[in-house]
Amino acid sequence: MKKLKYKSMFKYLGLFLTCFQVLVLTAQEGKTSEFSIVEGNNTISILIDKKDAKVVSIASDIFANDVLNITGLKPSIISKASTASSVIIAGTIGGNAIIDKLIASGKLSVTAFKNDWERYAIQVIENPVKGIDKALVIAGSDRRGTAYGILELSRKIGVSPWEWWADVTPEKRKELKVTVENTVSKSPSVKYRGIFLNDEDWGLQRWAALNFEPEIGDIGPKTYAKVFELLLRLRANTIWPAMHSSTKPFYSYPENKFVADNYAIVIGTSHAEPMLSNINTEWKHDTMGEYRYDTNSETIKNLFTKRAKETAKYDGIYTVGMRGEHDSPMIVGEDDTDAQVNLLERVITDQRSILKKETKKNPTEIPQAFVPYKEVLNYYQSGLKLPEDITLVWTDDNYGYMRQLSNPDEQTRPGGAGVYYHTSYWGRPHDYLWLNSTNPVLMWEEMSKAYEFQSRDIWILNCGDIKPHEYNIELFLDMAWDMDDFEKSSAVKTHMSTWAAREFGKESASEITDVLFENNRLAYIRRPEFMAWSQVEPVTKEGETELTQYHYGDEVSERINSYQSIIETTEHLYDGIPEHRKDAFYQLVYYPVIGASKLNQKWLYSFKNKFTAKQGRQSANAFGALSKDAFNRIEKETSYYNTKLQNGKWNHIMTMAPRFLPVFAQPATSNVQTEEKAELGLALEGYQMEVNDDIINSYADVLPVFNRYTNSSYFIDVFVEGNGTLNWEAKPKADWIKLSEDKGVLNTSSGEVEKRIWVRIDWDKVPKGENKKEAPLGHDFQLIPPSFKVNSAIDFISEGKTTTIGVSVYNPKLEVLKNYNGFVEDKGYVSINAENFTRKNAGKEAKWELFEGMGYTNKVITALPRTATPNVNIEEIKANSPVLEYDFYTFNFGEAQVNLQAVPTHAPHAGIGVRCAVAIDDADPVIVDFQTQGRSEAWKENVLKNATVKAAKQIVNKAGAHTLKIWMVDPGVMIDQVLIDLGGWKASYAFPKETVKK
């Protein structure tokens, strides 16, 4: 009985001590201390255990070198405690004897995180061991947790994760102190987080082979060590190694797997590389036969077995299943889906048998991934039976839009789910391999959605050559580390601003963020790599641009000017960046912005060259020269990146023409030559041809109607035809016509051959129309009753010749519009930015919310939460769905097309689509469906344009006030813009600017 009592007593005493440790930790957590790392000529030591994991000593050495780069003094890394006023003690629970003693003595409590995945505690402890007065203690729940904790100190002393990869040179200091708040890190939001080095042929592989690792002539262990260091600094743990035929397979260099293990990096492989193999380069047809499982399974299994043996003792994620060679489908059974599914199930069964045999583990304990990519997604949807412990790794459509995510049943699978996402891609309809042109807010939105649908086990980012994807890599991995920091879309701008402040200082952070956001907005409207309007597979020549040059203010010129603005801001910022950060700014901001801008301007100026050459304008030659200048600037900057930056450190990393596609070439341009005497030419907004005096009653002699309620303005181009000098003057025939310039000189010798004149109206001086309650009924905005229309003209005079351009203004005095707050028709259409609703009402389960930083207008409106129930019939929609309302006013009536532009997302799973419903006034809702199927032509157009446009017919039953209503049908649908077309919308790439009443 006594023994039993003593046992109970000890049991309760142990329970008490555990509770006491938790209380101590709770009391200590949040406590702030100042800890000196370098003071005077002295620096602390880092005390580790030699028996701890190798990554602990690696992380300690990285941190010690960071201190050296800041102060010139390097902390010693020691394995035995000695008398000292202070040290850093770093180690893994169970792997460091001193850490374990601190736990046993009650000085360090780890109850809250012991045995958890990749967590760490940072705490200052007084008198931790005999002879040491104070210690900054980093204790990891596992080896990676310890490494992350050590490298958190690097962040605290101001060292960027991109210290080496983007040359973010640390600020020099003589003394180094950190303010330490006793903390315990949270568990990572995503278990396996990492990158895929892909399409490395033109950058990373050439740089490694010719510059960084010439002794190997390839991406080898030295290169991977630097990549793994970056991953540790970014708190990542997984890599899919480079796998193109230009690179030897990862496991062909035996040291690679040891380096990965030393850095505690988990190796995985892509959808096309089963069982950690690299089919592209490991499969030898001459000795191994066809890569077909139905006819050659034993040889294929031998390859799988060899790799399983080689990797059994190391951290890895085995991709199961099988595709054909070179990212192609298995050819077995051809279009027989059932045969493909059956064979794929057999492949997976055989793979798991091999894993069980070679690792001596139950397959349920071995990390495995199944990637339903391209045709494999169809097999999975067709009933493929997949063991529940395998992680489903969902993919985007290669252009940033998730194809599918786990449904409620799949979300309960023990293997969970993950994401494979692209910010770099080779394939149809067009590559984007040069710059990082994926909008970070779009990436946030899609990854937030994936996270909401429980894809939390594996996140892999296809980032090409790493450079120039630096920011998006960090954003992706920071989200994977702690998704709680990214609840709202605004978190991305906050994150970028914090990133910019860290890299370049608080003074310029806001302006840098604005430049990058504008660069991202323009790339969202059209990626730089898509500006030639060509496609691949097969490669086509440059096509006709969809951007208009004569409607809606000239889309081509607007885009030129937008890019010119960020060029000038970027160059100005570069001048003000401290010298030790200029190279970093060049890599992270300058080159990406200038490259995108100049690739755009190269094509935009070539479009202007062709357009103006057809009109015989001498300016065509200037536009052709500007196109060539833009091409030359890209060459110059790329050469600087490779040969001058950091004294050639990055030579061969940057190629301005991956795959040498037409978009990267210098466009052909036209040259206008004539010996004729100089004459004045005119071209008006709204007309493709120039004003032609030889044609009686030329159709191009009057500007579009100016609308009082939208405060319209239009341009007139004055240009020189022929050679020589001419003077011109513009004389409005009414005092209410205002010109940006009214006279000037054009001279072919000086290059001043064209001037754009903006025509505006002083509405206070225009005679008012009749005082009416409503606008006139009519079906053609150009045919306005005289009582509402005021006509005048502008005379253009040059060399004794006068050309008259008509000006008509629509200026009725309408009582109903006096205090009207809404949108109004302009020339037969009403244009609305979706975020500018008049009213919104929440639904039974969902409500409309704004996402900032994406879409054509930089804001889209979406229905959340994404888990809300879709409403699919008319009564459900009316009763349960959230609704947006937009008040608008028309001067015409009749049938209208309500065009809705949405973000081209895909339905996350069966039962949820990409639909909304629309109606004008009291009409029944009409469902609009944005879903595309597979790699259809509609899908190709959508991803090239980052937009999907669908229309619903409606009736505008009278001229006057109306309300457009948009209901959610499916949660998550994102509306960008709306265009109500009454028959007046002309061809344009984007919808015209909002016609909001002014």
From TrEMBL:
Pfam families hit by this protein: GH115_C, Glyco_hydro_115
Domain of life: Bacteria
Residues annotated as transmembrane: none
Stored SUPFAM superfamilies: beta-N-acetylhexosaminidase-like domain
Keywords: Hydrolase, Signal
Residues of the Gylcosyl hydrolase 115 C-terminal domain: 822-994
Single GO biological process annotation from the record: carbohydrate metabolic process
InterPro entries hit by this protein: GH115, GH115_C, GH115_sf, Hex-like_dom2
GO molecular function, one term: hydrolase activity
Leader sequence segment: 1-27
PANTHER family membership: GYLCOSYL HYDROLASE 115 C-TERMINAL DOMAIN-CONTAINING PROTEIN, PTHR37842
Name used for this protein in its record: S-layer family protein
